[in-house]
Amino acid sequence: MEQILLSLLIWLPILGGVAVILIGNSSLALARWASIFIAVVVFIMSIKLYTGFDNSTYMMQFVEQTQWISFFNINYHIGVDGISMPLIILTTFSTVLIIIAGWEVIKKQNAHYMAAFLMMEGLIIGVFSSLDAILFYVFWEASLIPMLLIIGIWGGDNRVYAAIKFFLYTFLGSVCMLIALIYMYNKSGSFSILNMHNLGITATEQAWIFWAFFIAFAVKVPMFPVHTWLPDAHVQAPTGGSVILAAIMLKMGGYGFLRFSLPITPDASLEFSNIIIILSLIAIIYIAFIALVQRDMKKLIAYSSISHMGFVTLGIFALFLAYKPNSAEAALLGLNGAMVQMISHGFISAAMFFIVGVLYDRLHSREIATYGGVINSMPKFTGFAVLFAMANAGLPATSGFVGEFMVILGVLQANIWYAVLAAITLILGAAYTLWMVKRVFFGAITNNEVKTLQDINTREFFILAILALAVLIMGIYPQPVIETINISVENLLQQALNSKL
Amino acid sequence: MINNFQFDISSLLFVIPEIFLLSATIAILILNLFLTKNKQLVYYLTQLVLLVTGLLCFNLIGETKAIIFGGSFILDDIALIFKIFIIASTMVAMTYSRHYLITHSLFVGEYFVLILLSLLGMMVMVSGYSLLTMYLGLEILSLSLYTLIAIARDRTIAIEAALKYFILGSISSGLLLYGMSMIYGVTGSINIIEIAEFVANTGIKSNLLVINFSLVFLVIAIAFKLGAVPFHMWVPDVYQGSPTSVTMFISTVPKMAVIAILIRLLTDGLEYMHIYWSDLLIVLALLSIAIGAVVALKQTNIKRMLAYSTISHIGFVILGFVTGVISGYAASVFYILVYILTSLAAFGIIILFNKKGFEADKIIDYKGFSKHSPWFALMMLIVMLSMAGIPPFIGFYSKFFILQQVVAEGYVFVAIFAVVFAVISSYYYLQIIKFMYFDQSEKTAIFSAPMDIKIVVSINAVLILIVGLFPDFWIELSRSLF
């Protein structure tokens, strides 16, 4: 099974999704159990990726390769390294929670909802494990389709606008990447990503390719100024959609920078790193201010997502400034921090969206003003909410602290002012998150409906408890994650620093 | 040099499909006179004739390339594969048409006879290797099509469409003849081989102006027939005005025959003029892609929308020829095959939705489609995403192939232009998905369509996905033609 483990992880959920739709036509209950079964099996199988993973090499592991489209020398070539493996486990982990979360809440076409998430899981795992550029592109684009339907069918009032905006933004971004990939294929005769890493390209070509990649990945992350689709998409998407969007789809952008931009266009990345860093800092600070004034909880968390993802791009591109010839440590710290931040953000943003989802399911409002004094009727729930809010604000001993701290430490070596600016956000992050918590959970009850709220049931408790555990473990003992990614990140650093000119 | 006066009886072997088709068509026409009650028989006979003609063509696969009748008829891989595809697509189109014709009381025997005649015209076009045979085939096709549109003679909009098509079609035929006569004037021959030899050997310097002049006319005429911008004005009106079954036919199969003429004329006959005609084509291609994408955004009629979408697709097809390399031509052929497959499915689903007195041609008609017929909504979703060029559907690979060739020949900005407009055009495909999936509707539709259409439409649409997952065979096939 080791040889086809990745293929199983990709295709089992996709085919399972088809099966769930078929079962759903006759029995909804059976379809639900089938989808949770598939999701759990896939998650357990993905654990094998971790246990069977060799930490001591940056080489691709669990590799499978067969010819797919011989005319273009396109291969079905998949494999994982330390960068993609944790993201795959994050995907399988989140999907299980989403399936549980959608259990009773989604009234409309429940089986289709589950199936869409299962298919998306498979497609996203495909994105993270593809080693062939066209295979990557196919998964990358195909993953838009279930997301489009999820927002459009199960979303809020303004869902059509949000769904189409989401789709067009990402589509426009990725076609530019496609042209860049084709250009490199015409140069080298191969779509293999690993070959592209070693492909010699001139400075001008690198600049063009870099910006083509940048458009694709920046939209996905999303970076300032192409972030405007995200608040719309998040606000309108159902809880599960927001979770997968924040926890995983945004990571596809960060992953793209690591897998494509840095190794393929190292010189251009160096040349333009300042622009990217400044855009990241704008995202971190300016977007945090925007988050502060939001009245809609989901919008607030969406903006906070953008702000936190700013740390990822900051950590990635600060490596060029942080790197000193005699010590790569600072650069490495920043890169590792970016990876940790991606994973940690996956947990925290998922948890935050679940929190809003729990409230929304009860009162059908996302407005902060609707609530107040929720702690009186939902004490257990409030406990979780405060924990995740603290994590979102970057409290030490939660995962939110680790990534951001590493990035800031790395950036500190590069430029102290950048670090100061980034660190300001820790305050801003605390401000908007805690202020929201204060207004929603504490204070006097202003709305009579809040009095009648039921505290979380077992299903919701289970989801939040698992996420709380993940956030705490990552916060207290991040070592296993860092060990997993470290060698691959070191290799990536080498690739990024080796000039191709 | 080919001896023009030699006639070998064995060369008839290569035109057996055409001879059979012509005889069978006439037989059906006569039979139709005597059939008063059971008109359904004509339909089944037509399908049978199509099948036999297809098999006869299939039988010729593997024969070596033959140029017969004094160099005016060619039978090579392109001709055979094109013919087989044209026949197969016609069969599928006929299957869909039957339901439409019955529900809208247009079921007459002449309809099928005209389809068979236009098919004959297309087969002659595909095999035409002299200017005259090409023109002959084109006229057989066009005249049948004008009549086909007017077959709904009590609909003013159809008559308008037929007239419009007839007048503009005649003009373009005139342009084609004019261009051909100038080519003849310069080269002294109407045979593609001899024209090619003349251009290659004699050099084009002394006659450059005349050849260029005629080239413009030829390209315009072809652009007219393909519906490329700025010669696209007839396309939306004809698409909207024609009965949907005729629209489906016009928008798919004849495009392939015209592409065959384009291949023969430009890439075989005037190969050495590539730098000149590629400049003409690039303008056509870019304008078509842009106008097709932008104007479609505001359409409320799905047939009109598909008309603009066709224009945009044709732009991509022409882009493949701009490259001037054989793999670029292969990309174009692959694109047109994919386009026909997808377009047939789109119209098939529209026709499936037809009822007595209900044309299902407004985009609004598809509101809440996914609620009352989830399966066919899914099929339409596949079709629309494939047209938008989203993987893993086949429409992605056809665009990819074209773009790859275009970038390989150094037209990077052309490729960027094309993909940006591809993104814009994806908006109106998304609109259909939006109406089907995101909107609610109280109305429930009851399908009156027979089972055979449902099955064929499903196979057709699922093929878009399956070929998309394993496109290798089709890409290799298109590549092997050149």
Throw out a few tags for this protein.
A: 501 residues; 22 helices; B: 482 residues; mainly alpha; 2 strands; 1% strand
Overview of the molecule:
The complex is a heterodimer of chains A (501) and B (482). Chain A has 501 residues and is mainly alpha-helical. Chain A has one domain. Chain A has 22 helices and two strands. In chain A, strand 1 (61-69) and strand 2 form a beta hairpin. The radius of gyration of chain A is 22 Å and the shape is globular. In chain B, helix 7 (192-201) packs parallel to helix 10. The model of chain B has no long low-confidence stretch (mean pLDDT 89). The chains are: A mainly alpha (501), B mainly alpha (482).
Number of domains of chain B: 1
Biggest beta-sheet profile of chain A: 2 strands, antiparallel
> Which structural class do you get from the secondary structure elements of chain B?
mainly alpha
The gyration radius over C-alpha positions of chain B equals 22 Å
Strand order of the largest sheet of chain A: 1-2
Number of strands of chain B: 2
The largest sheet of chain B has its strands arranged as 1-2
Helix-and-strand structural type of chain A: mainly alpha
What letter string, H or E per element, gives the SSE order of chain A?
HHEEHHHHHHHHHHHHHHHHHHHH
Quick rundown:
The complex is a heterodimer of chains A (501) and B (482). With 501 residues, chain A is mostly helical.
